[in-house]
Amino acid sequence: MNREAPLNILLVDDDEFARNLSGRAFEALGQNVFEYSNPQDGIKAVEQDPKLHRLILSDFNMPVMNGFAMIQKIQEIREKERVALPMAYFIYTGNVRDLPLETKLCEAGIIVKAKPIRLPTFQEIVRFTRELIS
Question: Which of 18, 17, 64 is nearest to 41 (CA)?
């Protein structure tokens, strides 16, 4: 059987329960998860190895810096380092009905998912990312 290598996922959420639940869901799907409770640590992880992660899932609302600002910084790092490998960007939020925000995120190449995320959505995120990077 031809089994695909696991994805390296950067997961950033200040809510410990949500972060742990999301991390366990991705691990149950056979993926490698790197969890961080704040955007600054997620950015540092990408600075250390801009090619490691192929998927970012971040909460939108976090103290100090929101998920959108974090992803913009990560995109800048990858551009500066000339990383040509595709990466999937997802933000989850309880505020999906904010059309101007959702439009702004989509224009930046970020897919928005509504909280709470259930297992079929995690499967969809992994499937989408695999198609993107293949």
Answer: 64
pLDDT at 29 over 60: yes
pTM above 0.85? yes
- The arithmetic mean of pLDDT across residues 88-100, rounded, is 80
**Who contacts 9 (Cβ-Cβ below 8 Å, separation ≥6)?**
26, 31, 32, 33, 34, 53, 54, 55, 56, 57
pLDDT of residue 1: 38
Encoded amino acid at 101, one letter: L
- For residue 63, which phi and psi values (nearest 5 degrees)? -65, 155
Domains of the chain and CATH, by start: 8-133 (3.40.50.2300)
More confident of the two residues 11 and 104:
11
Long-range pairs of 123-128 with CB within 8 A, sequence gap ≥ 24: 123/29, 125/55, 125/57, 125/88, 125/90, 126/7, 126/26, 126/29, 126/31, 126/55, 128/88
CB-based contacts of 95, cutoff 8 Å, min separation 6: 60, 61, 101
